[in-house]
Write a structure and sequence with these properties.
Rossmann fold; disordered N terminus; 7 strands; 8 helices; alpha/beta; 2 domains
Length: about 220
């Protein structure tokens, strides 16, 4: 049988087709996160959701989620995600039935991402908050978080000075990388050992590296 070819999609049709595809995948997987991505495509066409949910971003977040479960367990009262962007990691934790998470607060300094994060996490609106805030200006003692996550430590000029703002004994999950050629990465590290020395946690429950095509991502889980 001869198959007829279809003309390539016009650029103006990209969002419509992406929306239909995301809705189809959401229906098949029954994933609130994928359903949220479909809503973002429809409601926030200027959001960089394809970049936020590309395979490298997803792999790093899956690594964080699965390692957290293995190392520190499944139950959390409140998780604070710093530099939370569109709230994808929060959604990944909230939709994972292996976890018992009461609430996730996603903080980002960019006010434009708050509405997108709320749209993406609409299914979890009673347990998810998106807040516009500078991580250096937060009063961490009043956040009520038993886990603080920061997967963008390469953007922090002085990691230990920021960690000193977090109450002693708080569990943290931190990620950095050795992608030195990226101009916005102002504090990359060459190894997980260097990362561990920089963070100077009182307890390290996990330290490891995830190789990617262009760089290695490093992760620490422990207590301040």
């Amino acid at each position: 049988m001869k198959h007829t070819s279809h003309p390539p999609c016009q650029t103006s049709d990209w969002y419509e087709h992406a929306f239909d595809l995301a809705r189809g995948i959401a229906a098949y997987t029954r994933s609130p996160l994928i359903d949220g991505i479909a809503r973002v495509i429809a409601k926030h066409p200027d959001a960089h959701i394809a970049n936020a949910f590309n395979h490298k971003q997803v792999a790093c977040k899956v690594w964080a989620r699965d390692t957290l479960l293995e190392v520190a367990g499944a139950t959390y009262g409140r998780i604070a995600v710093l530099g939370g962007w569109y709230g994808i990691l929060g959604a990944m934790l909230l939709e994972d039935t292996r976890f018992d998470v009461a609430a996730v607060d996603s903080y980002d300094i960019d006010p434009a991402v708050e509405a997108v994060a709320l749209t993406l996490n609409a299914t979890f609106q009673e347990r998810f908050r998106a807040l516009t805030a500078d991580m250096y200006a937060l009063d961490y003692a009043t956040l009520g978080a038993d886990l603080v996550i920061n997967t963008s430590c390469e953007h922090i000029a002085d990691l230990r000075s920021w960690l000193d703002l977090v109450p002693a004994g708080t569990r943290v999950l931190l990620q950095s990388n050795d992608y030195f050629s990226e101009p916005t990465h102002i504090n990359c590290v060459a190894s997980v050992e260097e990362f561990s020395k920089q963070a100077a946690l009182t307890t390290v429950e996990f330290g490891g590296a995830l190789p990617t095509k262009k760089y290695n991502r490093f992760m620490l889980i422990g207590r301040v």
